[in-house]
Amino acid sequence: MNLFSRKKKESKGTVVQTAQRKINSPLAIFSDVSSTAAERELFRNLRKSVPVIDAAICKLIRLLGTFTVTAKNSRCQQIIDDFMSNVCTNGTGTGINGFVYSYMESLLTYGEAVGEMVLSRDGKRVVALYNASVDDVEIQEGSSPLDLVICTKNDGMITPVKYSNLVFATLLNPEPGTVRGSSLLKGLPFVSSVLLKIFESIKTNWERVGNVRFAVTCKPSDNTVFTEDSARLIADEWSKAMRSESVCDFVSVGDVSVKVIGAENQIPDCDVPIKHLLEQIVAKLGLPPFLLGFSWSSTERMSEQQADILTSELEYYRTLLNPIITKVIRTVLRLEGYTDSFAVEWDDINMQDAVQLSNARLNNARAEQIEFETGKVKNDRRD
Question: pTM of the entire structure?
Fold first, then answer.
């Protein structure tokens, strides 16, 4: 009779053996919040302080291109087209492209991106897409390392979202064993700080040397009594001459010399160190230098190779966005009562000049025509 009493309970979820066990402590959720918030603020300041970084992220987002979703069912295709064109995004935009671009910007800047599908009041359709701020949410590990839980921060308390099937997140290059993504700007704070120090020193040097300052020295003779009033009079007359709106002369009696402060000094050349630092930044961002206005590579072959490398980077970013787009479209169709399949198709990435491509096609067509005529002449001779 005791056979059924010793029956083992089956596990409800998959058990990951190599993961570290979570500590059931109320303070555990606050252990890493401050560090991530500081990193996010640092990345925001990097984009504000270094224009090259902000320009590179904006160009990467634009170079992603656009996409279409195709379905075999004509009714499903109509629903998809209407949703992608008219869905409200973040309260001010219209269309799914704006949501995807904002989602990608958060992913590149912070290494994490969180989005939400907003349902209508009756819960029968998706009426809006919302890009959540990474400062307002927290991505945590659930009962298993394979289970991500998205939590909100309310009054200092972190609680999981109520309808988790409407919220989704993406991590960029997460470190093994963690639920934190790696920002594209990771590794740039030190290099950027050195670059900003050079810019700050250039600013200070030009304020000192560019805005010319003078040193007026008066050497009285042995028989002249030089009082404090005399020195103040010379200083006042010099100040009037310098502050005058029109050009005027400074006249003085005695041995008076005027020298430019800092005229003997020379501003150090900073082109070489700035280029070295910018090379490190551009290498981390993954964009060819010519897209950012730097003419470092002069050969056409090298530019083509850099364009090919950028193409592979963009393809990788597209693979991160495909699951999000698929989840949104699948939810839209299921709420309408359809479970038909569909496909996400991106536009071809073309980093070459359209004129060059057209010339290449023209040359290929001419080559085929010549080969055809040559082969026809040979066949006629044989006959």
Answer: 0.73
